[in-house]
Specification:
The chain is an alpha/beta fold and 208 residues long. It has a single domain, classed as P-loop containing nucleotide triphosphate hydrolases (Rossmann fold, 3-Layer(aba) Sandwich), CATH 3.40.50. Strands 1, 2, 3, 5 and 6 form a five-stranded antiparallel beta sheet that branches. β8, α6 and β9 form a beta-alpha-beta unit. The two termini are 20 Å apart. The relative contact order is 0.20.
Length: 208
């Protein structure tokens, strides 16, 4: 599902970050561990095709990202990759349900309100469907972000620091939700975090 080979990246000519080679097989899950500032989020964004690497090769679902034009890469991401960002980045002018339907549209999937409601129900937030984003809590917004990431049945699910601000109980709940949603949709889950509380939840580990 995921292969990283000779990957390097730099911002505006600053220090070059070199990433170890890594592979995660389809249907398995992996975790990227490291202290703040070591390049975990950058690696997750590279894997998600949100930015091109300086050097090296990234392969997702058998496709080399470097061989795709920006337009084809946007389409590939929408159809195959779901991302749970550290901050929700939900569209505040839309309802929770409309945010999910927007993701279907952008991913070139058939817009399906019932599918959106079913995903919200699985995450125990169906009652939030018609609320605007400013009407829900931070914890609820995180669940909406997970719902948005899995709405299109992605092959690869990426989560950036999903437990950083959570207590022990909610930390385990969120990791459980992510793994359950990934397994339900047949996705490979990759979590980037400095939170060692979740380290033992993943056998395939990459430490930066």
């Amino acid at each position: 599902m995921l292969k990283i080979r000779g990957l390097k990246h730099t911002y505006d000519g600053e220090a070059l970050i070199s990433y170890p080679d890594w592979e995660v097989e389809e249907g398995n899950h992996g975790i990227i561990l490291g202290n703040s500032g070591c390049g975990k989020t950058t690696l997750l964004h590279l894997i998600g095709g949100l930015m091109p690497p300086k050097e090296g090769e990234l392969e997702v679902a058998g496709e080399k990202l470097s061989e795709k034009s920006n337009t084809r890469l946007d389409r590939f991401r929408g159809e195959n990759i779901g991302i749970v960002f550290q901050k929700p980045h939900l569209v505040k002018s839309l309802t929770v349900k409309e945010n999910l339907i927007l993701s279907q549209y952008l991913g070139r999937k058939r817009t399906d309100g019932k599918r959106a409601e079913a995903v919200l129900e699985r995450l125990s937030i169906k009652e939030l469907a018609n609320r605007k984003i400013h009407q829900i809590s931070q914890g609820q917004a995180q669940r909406v972000s997970i719902a948005r990431a899995v709405i299109n049945n992605p092959k690869l699910l990426l989560a950036d620091e999903p437990t950083a601000s959570l207590d022990d109980e909610n930390c385990q709940k969120v990791v459980g939700l992510l793994k359950a949603q990934a397994e339900e949709t047949g996705a490979t889950l990759i979590v980037a975090t400095h939170d060692h509380r979740v380290k033992n939840e993943f056998k395939n580990q990459l430490t930066l």
